[in-house]
Design brief:
alpha/beta, monooxygenase (chains A, B), two-stranded antiparallel ribbon, 13 strands, homodimer, LLM class flavin-dependent oxidoreductase (chains A, B), FMN (chains A, B), 8-stranded parallel barrel, TIM Barrel, Luciferase-like_dom (chains A, B)
């Protein structure tokens, strides 16, 4: 059987290109209208995508002046989407640094109940340093400390999601027994960062646990993902880089006693599609022409830690002012920028344009066949189990992908024509984990919490 | 013009009577199905109710063994409901003690956006002491400390909801100006309990601020409500008690410089309705016969602080073992229990039955006309601006109220036949507050944050 790909639609309000909101084809007027997001999810569902995906961060991006970079809170948006769809999964980002685990456990469990098993949690430690100031902290915890906390956080939340055994609710009207309290367990977690007694205050959710998604590719991020993640969203500019990551993360998972199939690698891909390669390039340039240096340079400063606004945009990128040894929130994304600089020797403006499309994720331009070729190559050459599709603008950028590229993937036997199951775990080919507290552990008990 | 009442449907999974889930007319099989909650809200919307209302608490009720007292997280449930309705408001409970204000501000603002202005926040400090153990605390903060924190919390969250002026989003494609950052304000709150820099990371919501609802009737609770609340959910067994509360809270609001019309008093009412008074009594008894002493006594212990399980259920309530001076989480509800004891001299079982219907809220039994009479009397004699309707069981308990009582209220000119506005503020007759940061303060700027 041909390898089956997984496809998520990663929804950014107006699209992923930083200047998308300025383009006449973007639906900028509707980016605060939930009907718009529901329609995007319905399109992705009609195309049998695995899930829609939402980023998040609990602070305001400093460059809101130049782009639609507000954040609609994902739990609410995802819930509105599951109410308007039947099968597609919803994956939303939430922070282990800035959310109480009991609150997060409740909301994702509720989302999994309401969606009948379609919820996924994108586990992040939060990159934006200014978030700390919204939560009473003097400074954003450093990368390593955030990951240490995240480890314990996921342990706690997993215990909470497991705290009701699957058959704890009895609801026997005659005897008056609503729940078998022998099957509802205190978790009594006491650790360095958290003390949580539990149990959760709702029955176990349809998937047992929402799907664990992760998006960091630093050393700490890889170790974390190998231990916990069931899907990884990752940024790669080249096939080689994606192959290295894919092999590394699968071998780490194997070394940790996990089945590497239980961990799906999903690079981001942002496609500019047109009927000729040249037209696709021109479309990409249309968007790049709408970028604003103030925004692009602020983005770049966030990634490199250096204010580059005094440099000539059309001069060479000033590699010498970047100190690679500085601690950075987004370590892996910083390395990706440095790799582009080494490989392509861009001017400052060219680098800004390289990052404008999808913040470091792979931008492909070409005909539908060319885009499908790239997808197939990455899938068949050990670089991806699927993709987070990041339309440059919306809704047109996903329409053209669904209408032109998805049919080619189907002809090549790479993508489903119908859903086979009903939960996000079904779509992704992941097992439903048993509760770690189950009195008679089921055969499907996953290794990571055994 | 006749006084117009406000009616909310307060949704408990299987209904408010503690034994509702055991009754054959309850839809116990559907209490984890979101479609069930959406249908209840649609019924209330068809009947032109102001809002649906959800309680919450971030811990598991200890008596889950005997009743359906799990908690589906309200933000998610409310979002699913707004996705399936057009006009009705949604009011959900969230804790100032156990939620980060920045996170709560984001979620309610998002809900207000998604619902196009139908969100209300029921502000609670959390009564259940075991919640503390889910959030790393050794003990639940005492009543007074929780209210002190709540004061500051509401100040912070109001600043966050005001942090974008109404016209901050420009979205001018030509010039590239997405948001006028002169109209987006840091809040820079520094207080005893919170340090929050802000601004919020999303535009101001349709209602400016979600409606502020409050449900505590203790001394601290009344002071808090008079300062902040726009609607108050309150428990009273007698007309006199409700009148005292109504007069007191309105006069406190007036003393604080507020228009007392901007603060709606909504007692809870749990109606058993049948075609004769006797049949309604019998219906009530049917439910009481399904109660379980283990559950009822645990409820009573929570309210009184005393384990009464060793006492004879059919002996007199042992008033002498209750120490009224002990600090209690739910001070006002405790007083209500003592008042019942003084007034009615019940046996322990009778007291359990008195509280089984709606945890201390007024239970009325009677014909549709009799129930409408009570409602009219309370409304016309200075005890209520409307009611939180608490059906003893669901869905039948709200069906009969809508089919039999609402038409009578309409004939008497007490309740609307159509919505006049589109937001929850419109339904409740509340002004839309201007942002406290608005450069040109609008005439509607409310006093409480001026």
């Amino acid at each position: 059987m041909t390898r089956q790909l997984h496809l998520n639609l990663f929804i950014y309000p107006d699209g992923h290109h930083e200047a998308a909101w300025r383009h006449p084809d973007s639906d900028t007027d509707r980016i605060l209208d939930i009907g718009y997001y529901q329609e995007l999810a319905q399109k992705a569902e009609a195309a049998k995508f695995d899930a829609v995906f939402f980023a998040d961060g609990p602070s305001l991006a400093e460059n809101i002046r130049y782009a639609a970079r507000f954040r609609l809170e994902p739990i609410t948006v995802m819930t509105a989407i599951v109410a308007a769809t039947e099968r597609i999964g919803v994956i939303g980002t939430a922070s282990t640094t800035y959310t109480e685990p009991y609150n997060l456990a409740r909301q994702f469990a509720a989302l999994d109940h309401l969606s009948k098993g379609r919820a996924g949690w994108n586990i992040v430690t939060t990159g934006a340093a200014n978030a700390a100031l919204n939560f009473g902290l003097d400074a954003h915890p450093v990368h390593r400390d955030r990951y240490e906390r995240a480890e314990e956080y996921v342990e706690v939340i997993t215990k909470l999601w497991d705290s009701w055994e699957d058959d704890a609710v009895v609801a026997d009207r005659a005897s008056g027994l609503f729940a078998d309290t022998d099957k509802i367990h205190r978790v009594d977690h006491v650790g360095k960062h958290f003390r949580v007694a539990g149990p959760l205050n709702a029955p176990r959710s349809p998937q047992g646990r929402p799907v664990y998604v992760q998006a960091g590719s630093s050393e700490d991020g890889r170790a974390f993902a190998a231990r916990w993640a069931e899907a990884i969203f990752t940024a790669h500019q080249t096939l080689e880089s994606a192959q290295e990551f894919y092999a590394d993360i699968k071998s780490r998972a194997r070394a940790g006693g996990r089945d590497p199939q239980g961990l799906k690698v999903l690079p981001g891909i942002s496609p500019f599609i047109s009927s000729t390669a040249r037209e696709a390039e021109e479309l990409h340039e249309q968007f790049n022409d709408l970028t604003q240096p103030e925004y692009s340079l602020a983005q770049l400063e966030r990634l490199t830690g250096v204010d580059l606004s005094a440099y000539d945009l059309d001069g060479p990128f000033p590699r010498e002012v970047i100190d690679a040894d500085v601690e950075r929130s987004e370590g892996s994304r910083f390395q990706l920028v440095l790799d582009i600089v080494e490989r392509e020797q861009p001017t400052l403006r060219q680098l800004c344009h390289r990052l404008a499309g999808a913040r470091g994720h792979r931008v492909v331009t070409g005909t539908p066949d060319q885009v499908a070729d790239t997808i197939q190559q990455w899938a068949e050459q050990g670089a991806a189990d699927g993709f987070n599709v990041m339309p440059p603008w919306l809704p047109g950028g996903i329409d053209v992908f669904i209408e032109e590229v998805v049919p080619i993937l189907r002809v090549r036997g790479l993508f489903r024509t119908e859903y086979e199951g009903s939960t996000l775990r079904d779509h992704l080919g992941l097992e439903r984990p048993a509760s770690q507290y189950a009195s008679r552990p089921a055969a499907t008990l996953t290794k990571e919490t055994a």
